[in-house]
Amino acid sequence: MKQLLKLKVNGDDHEVYVDPRRSLAEVLRNDLGLTGTKESCLSGYCGACTVLIDGKAVKSCLIFACQAQGKDILTIEGLAKDGQLHPLQQAFIDHFAIQCGFCTSGMILSAKALLDENPDPSEEEVRNGLIGNICRCTGYRKIVEAVLAAATDKTQAYH
Amino acid sequence: MAEYSVVGKSIPRIDALEKVTGKAQYASDFTLPGMLYGKVVRSPYAHARILNIDTSKAEKLPGVKAVVTNKDIPPIRTGMYLGDMYALPVDDVVRYMGEAVALVAADTPDIAEEAVDLVEVDYEELPAVYDVEEAFSTNPPVIIHPNLAEYEVIAPIIVRRLVPGRPNVPQHFLIRHGDVEKGFKEADVIVENRYSTTPISHCTPETHVSVAWIEGDGTLVVRTATQGIHMIKGALCDVFQLPPTKVEVQSPYTGCGFGSRTWFTTEPLAAILTMKAGGRPVQVKFTREEMFIAGVHRTPVTTYVKDGVKRDGTIVARELTILVEQGAYSNISFMIVKNGCFGAVGTYRIPNFKLDSYGVYTNNPLTGAFRGFGSSELIWALENQIDIIAEKIGMDPVELRMKNFLREGEKDVCGQTTHSIGAEECLKKVAEWIEWDKKPVEEPEVWKRGKGIASGNKYTLAGSEAVCEVKVYPDGFFEIRHGTDEMGQGHNTILAQIAAEEFGVSVEHIKVVQGDTSVCPYDWGSLSSRSCFHAGNALINACKDAKRQMFELASARLGRPADQLETTDGKIRIKGVGGKEMPISELFSGWGKLYASLKGEIIGIGTHHTPIILEDPETGKSDRMVTYYIQGAYAVEVAVNVETGEVKVIKSGACFDMGQPINPKLCEQQMDGGAAMGIGSSLCEEIVLDKGRVVNPSFADYKIPTAAEMPTNENFTSMIAGVPHSEGPYGAKGLGEAVVTPYAPAVSNAVYNAVGVRIKDLPISREKVLKALKEKK
């Protein structure tokens, strides 16, 4: 039996009519057209589906969409503001931290949650902070460089 | 290295912005209104006869729109190289656990999954063979393909050889060079060993996925994650007996390939379902579990090697017997039986060489291309072997390799002439970086450190083709169209750089169109590390063609013959200092100046083809079986825990010869990623099989490295030592696969250096190291 869900995503209010068993990842992608959040393992290991819920990194394949009602959901599409990239997004570009791009959304959002909590992490803290995001392309070196560079980028207020 | 304006520069990737904003589209993001969801009914047995399939219950389930069995598909045997399989088992035999038996399409994925459970299949279980040596034997317990001799070879670039008395061997490749018996007699030291590798999974983040539908005019369109849109189009035309005007294949960005998508994956399944469902769009998307079970694995390879060496380090003879496990159907692994052997050919000088490589069927899941195409598996054996030899004769392993590297102009054991071989420089650079002559820092108690190096190569095959088109717009804007596939390597960026260089503009002036057979010209596919070289050369030819046309049009206006003209910055000018010039827009008129006067459009078309010369079946030799070799080396420092057997890679340095790097940072990207795949495949990745069943089909039990398992950035490097190739675009070769091939033996050599044990069967797991340490005591 489908039910009405009210979801706040990237600052916008949405109403969707979905089966309550649907995961947040599925609803974001299929019902709201926000395909930047990826599905890869559907079992919470790879982190490609990472979104932020009330600022915390959450694997959206592991929670029901209805569990996210009443919360602030941030997907990759909501990160840039008024045409200005978030420092992490710019750092990923500048430091060549992207190859196929499939892990990129989840990786950037996990990194944002990390930096929001720990604005000046060590390399080890970055590596451990990203342990829930698998990348098969990059070997992580340039991703770690990008996150550390974004941490030192004071040109934008952190949001 | 020559200096260019755009080529050779680390330009930011042109696809980076859309990937960091989530706008980049992948096949798995694609939906159409009314799309159905397809699921696969899979065999629970490794070898069985299908007695009956009853789909009635599934068909009655509300929401089910199509059910397909082997009775619904044309009985055309297919395969990438050998026609040994059907899309669904037309011959009523399943040969591996997980083989597709029937398909369903329904309104939702949940209904489709329920329908799968409602399809009732009666099987008669048959005896199965899982061990490659048993299957290879002259008296195997099971003959998996009794009609093997009737199967047709599909591609013309294969010389097929069956082995009388070995009924599970679909292919045998040999090399005979010199006289190994004579060579072994001349040797001072003989070293014989057996090595093996385990199947591993590509773990591409995007699983296999296609959406297929039939347009109003009857065209079958398949949007898919693939490595070869034209290859898939051609295969769909063959299997469904459709003309090329009635099939199109689209592939936007793809979430990795690594060889997992070098032929059919979900495309024929989605196509069959859309045909059954009246042309409605159908998506077939593999779950992660299905990727582990029904995606191809890296070929497990067993290598027997016997080497004869002189005390001064000269390798005088090498004999190899290689078993390449194909799994239940030969797929692309049929080609690995031959091409996988080139890992033993392209780097070292060996005056007496005998090689026999056999493909072997088993009732295990399919094996196939995996970044390296057999080279990693063979070099695993050879680069362990050369360190063993070094110790036996008391020679430094770096020195031993340097002594035996081929030199420019020398012929290798297959008779190819060596050209562009940076093996020596690569090895020298990594050895310097790791401070090879210094012992590693001693750690207290349980962790022992060791250093190891290994050299490796990867060829790019001969026999493939590429076409590119470039359209000229006014004032320095150009559109290029290529047919190869972007799965992360950065093809779009490097091709934009090449076009920018050719026209004297920046990459911002280049639009790149890819991933659609209805608009993109033919390309063989993103395999064999070939795209930069072949598409790059085709693009240069296309640019030359476009410039010739432009200059012919401009010639009258500038009052000079076409061959005295050149272009940069959107202008055409007379070569030399201070001549007349004109903007390209003067050649255009019409709406938006989109009409090239008198000509209509200025479109350059170029192609590049490296013809293959098939080998002499008696010797395995030919003047041109490969286009080039990419060479490289790794140096690693490991720490081994003598109480738990755990191995950690502490330092990792790469250096590769990719010819002229078109974009150095993109080359680093490949090496960085290759090292991670190397660490995973050396230490922890393993598809565990139990009587044909994949025991660990999930990331819970199949481990790949995370950021925390990699060396720190300070202890990690990727270096470039390119040797320009005379036939390459600006001297470039390729890089994508070579970056994995030497890794595992470098780790193995380092473990031996640390604790004196050598694991010869990948992976170098904790259990194996601990067991070996205990046995050593």
Question: What do these coordinates show?
Answer:
The complex is a heterodimer of chains A (159) and B (777). By secondary structure, chain A is α+β, with helices and mostly antiparallel strands. Chain A folds into two domains: 76 residues, Roll (Ubiquitin-like (UB roll)), CATH 3.10.20.30; 66 residues, Orthogonal Bundle (DNA polymerase, domain 1). Chain A is built from five helices and five strands, in the order E-E-H-E-E-E-H-H-H-H. A five-stranded mixed sheet of chain A has the order 2-1-5-3-4, with helices on both faces. In chain A, strand 1 and strand 2 form a beta hairpin. Chain A is globular, with a radius of gyration of 15 Å. The N and C termini of chain A lie far apart (38 Å). With 777 residues, chain B is of the alpha+beta class. Chain B folds into three domains: 184 residues, Aldehyde Oxidoreductase, domain 3; 329 residues, Aldehyde oxidase/xanthine dehydrogenase, molybdopterin binding domain (Aldehyde Oxidoreductase, domain 4, 2-Layer Sandwich); 146 residues, 2-Layer Sandwich (Aldehyde Oxidoreductase, domain 4), CATH 3.30.365. In chain B, 25% of the residues lie in helices and 25% in strands. In chain B, the strands form nine sheets. A seven-stranded mixed sheet of chain B has the order 3-5-1-12-9-10-11, sandwiched between helices. A five-stranded mixed sheet of chain B has the order 7-16-15-14-8, sandwiched between helices. Chain B has a four-stranded mixed sheet with strand order 18-28-29-32, with helices on both faces. In chain B, a hairpin with a 6-residue loop joins strand 23 and strand 24. The longest helix of chain B has 28 residues. Chain B starts with 15 loop residues before the first helix and ends with a helix. The chains are: A alpha+beta (159), B alpha+beta (777). At the A-B interface, helix 2, helix 3, helix 4 and helix 5 of A face helix 1 and helix 15 of B.
